[in-house]
Amino acid sequence: MSAKKSILIINQSAPYGSSNGRESLDLALTCSIFEMPVSLLFVGDGLYQLINNQSPEQLQMKKHEAMLSALPMYDIDQIYVTAEDLSENDLTENDLAMPVTLIQRDVIASLIQQNDSVLTF
Amino acid sequence: MTIAFDEEGFLRDLSAWSTELAVEIAAAEGITLTEAHLEIITVVRDFYHQYQLSPAMRPLVKAVTLALGNDKGKSIYLMKLFPGSPAKLIAKIGGLPKPDNCL
Amino acid sequence: MTLHVINKTPSNLPLYHRMLNGLSAGDGILLIEDAVYAGLSAHQALFEGLPIDIKLGALEADIQARGLTHRLSPTFTLVNDKAFVQLSCEHDKVVSWY
């Protein structure tokens, strides 16, 4: 039996302004149902998906941070954010909706290398 | 007053749900609703309110384990109460959207 | 007087530069949709050195949705939908940058 393929999903889009965040989440949840190892990297504008205290009621959209915070329930807990993106936005881990693993930007290349497939949203 | 369902029988207006309605939806699925069913439905409705998602099977088992303990947090227990596809049936009876990625 | 409406995140720097280049004294800038992230204090360097009487605003619904209510730089005024309509009427032109 061959090992399941691992997948890295790179999120580089802000939430609400496009459907990229939702599509990425859908893919992550589907992969978890097939018990594929899933990692998520939030980089650039993608970091904004994780900012806490979102309140999209007026936009009549689902609260993105709420759905993201379900990831550990789907056994997805490899969630990466770069320290550089946080500091460039004057944000800290306390501004985020869920626990993440902080990495340096120069670790991204090895994350990409380590995974069998990489998809970007 | 008519209550709207989609083509698969999931409630369109989530706020239209009530325990009485759950009894009716369950009956149409051949299930006589008991307290044992309702406590699971409550767990799943709480999950939906927290995460805005109807849980698939794995997170469902996890959520039930967290809320009601290991004896109930088992697929076999959930399959007995909601035969066939528990995640889908619980969402349907609980007045929630069909779980995405439901196999 | 022109109202400049922008809707992309501040990572689209050339877009911001095009907008800023098109400003005249007395104009207004309104951040909407993904552009509201430009209202984070970390990005205020973008708006430094503007003609002093430029008014800065950000659409309230978009700010709230994205969790920025308490993170918006104080140089921006929150604008609700009604005020957005009013602003559009008060200015002779509305230019969208997207």
Automatic annotation (TrEMBL), chain C:
It comes from the Bacteria. InterPro entries: DsrEFH-like, Sulphur_relay_TusB/DsrH. It holds the Pfam family DsrH. PANTHER family: PROTEIN TUSB. This is Sulfurtransferase complex subunit TusB. The gene is tusB.
